[in-house]
Design brief:
By secondary structure, the protein is of the alpha+beta class. The chain is 64% helix and 15% strand. It has a five-stranded antiparallel sheet with strand order 2-1-5-4-3. The radius of gyration is 41 Å and the shape is rod-shaped.
Length: 257
Amino acid sequence: MGSWRNLSINRKLTLIIMAASTVALLLVSAGFVAYKRITFRQSMTRDLSTLAEIIGNQSTAALTYDDRTAAEEILRALNAREHIVAAGIYKGQERFAQFPMPRAGAGVVPDRPGATGARVEGDRLLLFHPIKLAGEPIGMVYLKSDLAEMHERMDRYAGIIMLFMLASWLMTYFLSTWLQRIISRPILHLAATAKMVSAGKNYSVRAKKHSEDELGQLIEGFNQMLTQIQERDAGVQQANDQLEKRVYERTQDLGKA
């Protein structure tokens, strides 16, 4: 805390401006990332729902005729979807077909269907979507997707934010160094004037007023104080001169006597 107090006004103003801009940028960035994260998850859910709807429409015949081979063939097309780690088709409450596990532990398909809708479990997005025929539910589609794409996008956003913060720091530093002169220059001028008056006891010196703001009022008050001191000293000097004159005249009168 002591080191902060001992910093120059220029350095303090620079640090304050940079700190304020950094906090503002961090808040904006956090809001942006949170918004993109939410909207991207919603977009993923919509995409999975659309994919599940397509799979469900293609699976109605397989479920109707108990054709597991056809259902598995439909799910096998998901090999082109790198982020789909598991998929399944249910008939009633029983698993009818499932997507082959691309890697150990990643493609487990539940034995029973869950509640309709999407949810996040760990690092996975799960979706259960009903399969309907003539408006009646006859089964369920299960899709399980990883969130790697979202994490990759968040990493890119973090890199972009860091670049923007670096550019912001540089710009803020140069702007603050230039703009702070509006405040620091009158203060430094006032300090130099006060030092000059104190060193030379010359109360006729005046600080130059640069503006009509609070700093201008401070300089004006300082000049008025110097004027009052100068007038007081002039009065004291005049009184001393008159006293010396009277003493001199008294001395002359006594000498003549």
